[in-house]
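During the no-cost extension, the postdoctoral fellow (Dr. R.K.) reprocessed legacy sequence entries with the updated structure-token encoder. One reprocessed record is reproduced below for audit purposes.
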Amino acid sequence: MCCVEEVRTLKAVVGPLAGGDERLSFDLLNGKMTVPADIDGDAVIAAVSRTGMEAKPWECTSVAERDKANSRRQLLQAVLAGLSGGAALLGQILGQAFQAPLPGQMAEAVAVAVGLWMVLPKALHAVRSLRPDMNLLMSVAVFGAMAQGDWMEAATVSALFALSLALESWSAERARRAVAALMDLTPPMARVKEADGDEALAAPEEVPVGAVFVVLPGERIPLDGRVLVGESMVDQAPITGESVPVLKSVGMEVFAGTINADGVLEVENLKLAGETTLAKVARLVEEAQGKRSKVERWVDRFSAIYTPVVLAGAVAVAMLPPLALGLDWSEWIYRSLVLLVISCPCALVISTPLTVVAAMASAARAGVLVKGGEYLETASRLSAIAFDKTGTVTLGRPTVERVMALDGGDEGTILRLATALEARSTHPLGRAILDHAAAGGIAPTPAESIQSLPGKGICGILDGKTVWLGSHRYAVERGAETPAVRDAALALAESGRSVVAVGDDTGVRGLIALSDPIRPEAATALAALRQAGIRKLIMLTGDNTATGERVAAALGFDLVLAELLPEDKGEAMDDLARQFGTVAMVGDGVNDAPAMARSSLGIAMGAAGTDTAIETSDLALMSDDLTRLAWLIGHSRRMMKVIRQNIAFAIALKAVFMVLAILDMATLWGAIAADMGAALLVVFNGLRLLKATAAPRSEEDTGLSSPSKAFDQRLA
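Re-encoded structure tokens follow.
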């Protein structure tokens, strides 16, 4: 595929086989159509062949092989355009300079045949299927000119149309290469450490999980892994968009495609090459091209109606003036042919998809993974954003501030009960309790029959007795609250701490107070969102009201909803949507999944290396940087502005030339030159978004490592 018009044709013939064209997805830049697995491949290939196009099963070839195949297709189109143009020029020289009309007409006929070589099969399919498209419009214009004896016009139009197709293919290939350059950041070789201590170079695809590879200063990290030896600053901008290199030491994870700045690292490989975070991001960006935005779908519907209307209008222009007013048939037929050429919808239909793809690719480069053009469009219309508290506006790494024993107990006993239940916990509060206990020399003895109660707490069996840990509300639910417990819990919670009750069958044995620091950039990020025009900022939390209000007051949230279970957050999102319209939910992608699913736009925080967060969200911030949100909204609005510019320009130009055609002030070759110029201008206007990247947070944050600078310079 090299034009969006062909997508509509393919939907018409393959859609019935798939049970509806909504089950098909298209990657225009890579010329790929994805169909349901239960469809017979031979039937798809046969259906495509009837359109004048050719299909074959997709092969996961290397970028170099795909580039070679695309280059061959571009060369063929360039050769056809060159031969058609040369034959048209020869025809003009023979007909005018040497007064040899017959040889001149023969050369012009060759120009027409070569220029329409790739167009006529598609035009014939458009006639058979009664679905007029640009190929049919152009073919009618060319043969109409020949029927009138305007062989030179026909030859010129054919040559210019062949040149237009070649330039359009070239511009689409340029866009594809630019997107590939943004995503193809993995080095071609990995330095694998062998058993005898020697190092051998191997392709990342050949490195097994568990192998150890070495990364020298200035090199890109080839695979996701865990540092075993060494310490170094690593530039993670290609994955997370962070403007400042991050210190990586033993035990920390590193990602494929990031840049090792100054130290030697020995890294244990954790994932196969095709499963790294970078590979998943690249795959999702590619798949996202098939998820069309509302404006893309509008353009598709518009062009489907526009083309037959224009064809009918051209027939009316050709017939009505001669029949009604007795005007010259030849003159009005020529005007109708000019009208057909300038009405070709190519510039209009190509104005949006390349713009959307460019915007998504640059967002990925800035550390924002968008899973479809429709989600980027939604971001431009946001009026309110809801945030989860823990791990989103706070660091998500709470610390224990106080352990309060009740009924004559001691802190050690309370921590022993709590760590027994949290021994295998991955919850931030559980990890904080375990860390606090470890610092006091208390090792956990895991409880048995542990049962997690989402949004409430956890219970289990220790030394034959039921023990439990949970929120103040859970203590009330168990009937374990007493006036003394309530007063103590309220006193701790009033200062904004999270309070966990620890108890057994006898009642509440003690309370643990924890606090979670606010992210340093949160206040700046929220201020930037207000400046970007977001009307309401809301915080949703399962914590108690006092804790929620303390954080909300510190950051200036407009509304805080506290003590919410996961399902409560989903219902809250429905209420917010009714009040404010388009509302996003920012969370961790797991506990907040119900709210994210029911929001207009689900945004996952810190998705780098987190499969669940990437998969459950519409949009993922690869780092934990909230300042990316304001940039994202501005970026999405820039995308919509460029799309509106392209659509307005394409329609305005066509309107002007339609008037000129009717007034006999335009020629066939001038019309196609204008159409070709319009198509190229909207493509290059859209590709400007490839240069849009997230700005660093401060002036001193601009110091990227030299390898990253070198890469950015090569990309530019």
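The CA atoms of residues 586 and 603 lie 5 Å apart. The domain at 399-515 is CATH 3.40.1110.10 (Calcium-transporting ATPase, cytoplasmic domain N). The remaining legacy entries will be reprocessed before the final report is submitted.
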